[in-house]
Amino acid sequence: MTDILARRTLERPAGEQAIEDLHGVLDQLWIDAAFVPAMDQMAFTTAVIEAASNVVQHGVPAAGADLLLGVELTVAAGRLRAVISEIGAAPLDPVPNLDGPADAPLDDDALLEDYDESGRGLSMIRALVTTVTVERQGDTNVWVLSRDSAGS
Length: 152
Hints:
Order of helices and strands: EHHEEHHEE
Number of strands: 5
CATH topology: Heat Shock Protein 90
Radius of gyration: 15 Å
Distance between the termini: 15 Å
CATH class: Alpha Beta
Low-confidence stretches: 99-116
Number of domains: 1
Strand order of the largest sheet: 1-2-3-5-4
Mean pLDDT: 86
Largest sheet: 5 strands, antiparallel
Shape: globular
Number of helices: 4
CATH superfamily: Histidine kinase-like ATPase, C-terminal domain
Structural class: alpha+beta
């Protein structure tokens, strides 16, 4: 198991204040992990904010539930990782298949989304990190973003 060198978490109602708070959490992470190259910090931060903003803007609560945004950020040797959770969310339909390297071709539906605002965000996230996965865990849609970093 890889040792975690820095960790930060956030859980808030999925609203604009959660995104503001997430900016502060990321700032604190980079204080703890100042050894991570600036380019990796910037790319990872942008991907995390974009994914969290996607939850806030497009997340749908399950019937009778309040939608929460959960974020766990970790820095380990060679790897930056974010687990972004849509807690209390309706299942994604369909679940995007975003796993794989950024230069791997997207499916036809994803390519068509590139011309639409939300599709550009998903494509941007994929280009900024090494891997992206999305899965359903109980009442939560879980996005896992990771970026390889030689400096961490």
